[in-house]
Amino acid sequence: MATALAKAAESTAAVEHAARIEHVSKSFPGPAGQQLVLDDITLDVAPGEFVTLLGASGCGKSTLLNLVAGLDRPTAGTITTDGRPALMFQEHALFPWLTAGKNIELALKLRGVPKSERRGRAEQLLELVRLKGSYGKRVHELSGGMRQRVAMARALAQDSQLLLMDEPFAALDAITRDVLHDELTRIWAETGVSVLFVTHNVREAVRLAQRVVLLSSRPGRVAREWRVDMAQPRRIEDAPVAELSLEITDVLRGEIRRHGQH
């Protein structure tokens, strides 16, 4: 852990931000012409910071994450990141014909890690996500939560300073999701990686983040931000988490009413 924290400190000293989004807008063609999905978004993610991006369905959260990941280009504005981000989707997207370890090794191979080092590094990452001994397991042998842990290990294998997460726990049951919240918080603290996490679950946003950013309904704009000054680890049922969640929910509902959505 000391090495990871030292690495994070060096990264913080070297760069001012893990991601910088400056006046970004995004339009897509539609039946009535260009449809504005994101409008003049400006947002920074500091090195080592955990930011959750919150908003109603269809507000452009995933679109913004794809832009930061470099999967698409903004119509206007600029996005810069500290190296290439790693992206984790709602679906695990593991290759079913590969073992858990080989899925991770593929990411290491694409990064240029020598073949002689890949297995050892894959096993280290599996241990980090508390799947020690699962190197040889096939995807069908893993539970939903275990698959997401392997997907997280694969994302970390890219050795990126910025982890982008698009509702990665949305399909899981409440208990598994609660466990993975704890695991993600631990891994974030141990590695010093920056996280930009998309969700529509207000309590999840407050439980995980140092900062919650609320997007308005389409077109998505930064409506408001909250600094979450609560020590980790947190529980989703903690009174301060519930109190801030209620405040954010009231603002979110106001945004939805203002834009005429239900």
UniProtKB/TrEMBL annotation:
<keyword id="KW-0067">ATP-binding</keyword>
<dbReference type="InterPro" id="IPR003593">
    <property type="entry name" value="AAA+_ATPase"/>
</dbReference>
<dbReference type="InterPro" id="IPR017871">
    <property type="entry name" value="ABC_transporter-like_CS"/>
</dbReference>
<dbReference type="Pfam" id="PF00005">
    <property type="entry name" value="ABC_tran"/>
</dbReference>
<dbReference type="GO" id="GO:0005524">
    <property type="term" value="F:ATP binding"/>
</dbReference>
<dbReference type="InterPro" id="IPR003439">
    <property type="entry name" value="ABC_transporter-like_ATP-bd"/>
</dbReference>
<dbReference type="InterPro" id="IPR050166">
    <property type="entry name" value="ABC_transporter_ATP-bind"/>
</dbReference>
<feature type="domain" description="ABC transporter">
    <location>
        <begin position="19"/>
        <end position="244"/>
    </location>
</feature>
<keyword id="KW-0547">Nucleotide-binding</keyword>
<dbReference type="InterPro" id="IPR027417">
    <property type="entry name" value="P-loop_NTPase"/>
</dbReference>
<keyword id="KW-0813">Transport</keyword>
<dbReference type="GO" id="GO:0016887">
    <property type="term" value="F:ATP hydrolysis activity"/>
</dbReference>
<protein>
    <submittedName>
        <fullName>ABC transporter ATP-binding protein</fullName>
    </submittedName>
</protein>
